[in-house]
Amino acid sequence: MRLFTAFLAFCALPAAAQRATTHETRSGLVLSNDKIEFTVLTTGGAFVEFTLKDDSKKLNPLWDPARMAREANLTPRFGASAGHFLCVDGFGPISKEEQKAGYSSHGEAHKLPWETVNSSEMALTQKVHLPVVQEMYQRTVKIAPGEQVVSVEATLESELSFDRPLLWAEHATVGAPFLKLGRTVVDQSAPQCRTKPHLESERSNRTFPSGEDFTWPKLTLDGKELNLRVAPEKHGVMNHIGCLMDTSREIEFITALNLDERMVIGYLFPRRDFAWVQHWMNFPENGMYAWGLEFGMQPYDMTKRALYALQPMFGANTFGWLPAKSKISTHFLMFLTRVPAGFEKVDDARLENGEIVLEDRNARKRVSLKTSHTL
């Protein structure tokens, strides 16, 4: 009887609360289990830290521009943008009319305070109202004991009485020191690519031609074939490409692997949710490197008008749709793991029998991560 009473008392205890933290002066919440720690900001909702518990270096692969600027005695340039942040309803530049009306680049969500709806040690639900576009966004982030996988499910609801084109990008971004010249490689299930169209006056430090189609990862530049999956050997360049996810797959992937640390961060997501990925390959001379693996509903960070002008691209829509007074949902998985020596390329990443499986076929090596999450 005493044991039964003790069991009932245990069941009545509240779930372990999330740990509050501060990341570069910004408030956040930490999801934690025996394998990983994962930090989410309370303003903007960005994922800013993802680390392995058994990593003595606590290497965070996510882009941290505030830390890099502080270490270099520079002023941060990117405001609320950091790590993996949300771009909805907007991605990149805005029109002159939108700017005049008070809208901002990358939409509203990444700048506003988010309300915590529910939280525990291994789950967090947040929501944010977007007043300018009149939308409600809600997201649940979950981890599970013994797993190195994060599940992210979101809904976006329109408060308007008419259908509208939608821009939604998960601005997943890796940064230095995880992102290292010549030693970090990116793989994806997206074969058809096009360099981002740009005017000659916009070239700046861009080296890729404007609007050129190619098959990932080989791009010919000045008669020389480049392998774009490898971070460049030299800094001082910034380029964009847009790629259509493999139309023969239902579940897509994109990964970034540091060959020296033998650490890979990656994503799995349904093609029905996110059909495109834009690569923002930013390698400035000051060493504040960033590589955006920006999977979303459109190929580039452009205005709605510019994206509409590209319609269709590779036979696919270049933006999403948000129906009147309706909700749409998305889901993706995010993972972090070590790989064995000699593992140098992710030829495939997939969900299989309760595991995320990564394969390097040339090396005949395979990594499996158990997961209770599905897509």
What features would you describe in this structure?
By secondary structure, this protein is mainly beta. It has a single domain, classed as Beta-galactosidase, Chain A, domain 5 (Distorted Sandwich). It is 7% helix and 43% strand. It contains 4 helices and 27 strands. The chain has helices at 2-11, 65-71, 96-100, 304-309, and strands spanning 19-23, 26-32, 36-41, 47-52, 85-88, 115-120, 123-130, 135-142, 149-158, 164-166, 168-171, 173-175, 184-188, 192-195, 213-215, 218-221, 224-227, 237-244, 251-258, 263-270, 276-283, 290-296, 320-322, 327-338, 348-351, 355-360, 365-370. A hairpin with a 4-residue loop joins β19 and β20 (263-270). Residues 1-15 have low confidence and may be disordered.
Count of helical stretches: 4
CATH architectural label = Distorted Sandwich
Q: Helix content range of the residues, please?
A: under 10%
N-to-C span:
43 Å
- Any idea how many domains? 1
Low-confidence stretches: 1-15
CATH topology name, in short, is: Beta-galactosidase, Chain A, domain 5
Q: What's the CATH class, please? A: Mainly Beta
Q: Tell me the major beta sheet.
A: 8 strands, antiparallel
Beta-strand content bin: 35-45%
Radius of gyration: 21 Å
Report the oligomer. single chain
Give the structural class.
Answer: mainly beta
Q: Which word captures the global form? A: globular
What's the total number of strands? 27
Mean pLDDT, all residues: 93
